[in-house]
Design brief:
Largest sheet: 7 strands, mixed
Helix content: 25-40%
Number of helices: 10
Order of helices and strands: HHEHEHEHEHEEHHEHHEEEEE
Radius of gyration: 35 Å
Shape: globular
């Protein structure tokens, strides 16, 4: 009896286990079937998109034409040649640009270059399109869930099928991907050589350092870009290895301190994002890129943008001889050697040590500003030269009331006509005042100067028959406070 009951219990347990295993296998089979069906649906959707593109996309154009017809997508671009802006715009078809990061700046930059007719674009990103990205330009809601590289290539091919696209979906900072990334910089050009320019459009310092190290080692120029966390400022920086400062020559505080930026991010807190600021930075980036590729205009080595004051700072940063990037130091030495060879061959033009004077195309009234510290002998020569033309004075408008410092302000009027009458002498400001002046032109005839000279009171200046003030040395003088 007891043995039989024990045996029957074990049989029942075995049967239950068998049923559970069968159910589990069935569920696994269903899960595999569901995964296979989803993959098939994605494949069919991709095939459908390709078929749509075949029917909607225009035929490829082998050569750029300046013919002004509605069917020519390059007519307005080639008009730059006719207007004398660019000598060889069609050269852009031979250029290759590599873009790292397809966020708010990189995706818009890729679209701009595509519309400009760039020869080849290499796209690098590892992220996917999200609905949270819809506050930016370029990506569409129906592309949510797609890899950014795939979505970008799909859209850009539809915009301009003449451009060659190459998409890579991986993180360039990982060890296994960095060598391949460098290989594409070295050999990814449209003609098989190195790319012409790399655009860094990433949102973290780790990726910026990776791009900087790769470009410094290969001595390939690149442009770094970024937008602030508050979304109201941004910048671009053109980096020529060895010639200008690299990203690590003057690194941000986080990079210089060796802080892991991942530790600074807080859960549930994201950076602000404005499509306007990102588009501004992308436009600045691509404009600079095209000028560098086609060699026209003046390329900015650093250009910032502050949306709060509409301020655009611009300057050049020289490389740091003690840069921690050894490849940057080597590039500096290589650049110095090249410059020395050019100088020895007489190919370097000598740069004037003194600043050239600004020459205006038109200066009907001969307006000029002379420093208050002008020597007396120079002032005397100015007076003597002007006295020779005193016989035929040039008519001048009478200044309006209050133009000579009414209300206690310290102002003066400067006029230097081409043929002025003899200038009358007045008191000169003491040299030790160190007057700082701010001059602005007014109606092409008058120049005001704001002087912070305190209570200093010169003798009243002389006036001619028309009421215009003349000063012996054309220096800056202030009226007595009211």
């Amino acid at each position: 009896g007891a043995f039989d009951w024990l045996f029957l219990g074990r049989v029942a347990l075995a049967q239950q286990h068998t049923v559970r295993c069968e159910k589990s296998r069935a569920m696994e089979g269903k899960g595999t079937e569901v995964a296979a069906l989803r993959a098939r649906v994605a494949e069919l959707e991709a095939q459908l998109r390709r078929e749509k593109m075949k029917h909607s996309a225009r035929a490829k154009i082998e050569h750029m034409s300046s013919e002004v017809v509605d069917s020519n997508p390059y007519s307005r671009l080639m008009a730059l040649k006719r207007m004398g802006i660019v000598d060889n715009y069609e050269h852009i078809r031979e250029c290759t640009v590599l873009i790292v990061g397809l966020g708010g700046v990189g995706s818009v930059a890729a679209e701009m270059l595509t519309r400009c007719g760039i020869g080849k674009l290499l796209l690098f990103d590892y992220d996917t399109v999200e609905i949270a990205n819809m506050n930016r330009l370029f990506f569409r809601p129906n592309q949510a869930g797609m890899k950014k590289t795939d979505a970008a290539a799909e859209t850009l091919e539809e915009i301009n099928p003449d451009v060659v696209f190459e998409a890579h979906t991986y993180n360039i900072t990982s060890t296994q991907n960095y060598d391949h990334f460098m290989g594409r910089i070295r050999e990814g050009g449209i003609k098989g050589g190195a790319v012409d320019l790399v655009l860094g459009c990433v949102d973290n310092f780790e990726a910026r350092v990776a791009v900087n190290m790769a470009c410094a080692e290969l001595e390939v120029p690149w442009m770094e870009s970024g937008v602030s966390e508050n979304a109201v400022s941004g910048h671009i920086q053109y980096i020529l290895p060895g010639e200008t400062a690299c990203f690590q020559c003057a690194p941000p505080l986080i990079v210089a301190s060796g802080i892991d930026e991942k530790t600074l991010k807080r859960e549930g807190v994201c950076a602000a994002s404005l499509p306007t600021t990102m588009s501004m930075v992308a436009g600045m980036l691509v404009q600079n890129c095209i000028k560098a590729l086609l060699k026209f205009g003046e390329v900015s080595y650093y250009l910032g943008y502050n949306a709060m004051q509409d301020f655009f700072p611009r300057y050049t940063m020289r490389p740091n001889e003690q840069c921690e990037n050894s490849w940057c130091v080597r590039a500096q030495k290589s650049y110095a050697e090249r410059q020395a060879k050019k100088a020895a061959a007489g190919e370097l033009e000598e740069i004037a040590a003194t600043e050239q004077a600004v020459v205006h195309e038109e200066n009907e009234w001969g307006i000029c500003v002379v420093e208050a510290s002008e020597p007396e002998d120079a002032a005397a020569s100015t007076s003597a030269a002007s006295a020779a033309a005193a016989a035929s004075p040039v008519p001048r408008p009478r200044p309006a009331k209050g133009e000579y410092g009414a209300g206690g302000t310290t102002r003066c009027l400067l006029l230097a006509p081409p043929r002025p009458p003899a200038l009358e002498g007045t008191a000169r400001p003491p040299a030790e005042l160190g007057v700082e002046k701010r001059v602005r032109a007014e109606r092409g005839v008058r120049c005001w100067a704001e002087l912070g000279v305190g209570s200093w009171k010169p003798r009243p200046p002389k006036r001619d028959a028309t009421g215009v003030v003349y000063i012996k040395s054309l220096a800056l003088f202030a009226t007595a406070p009211a």
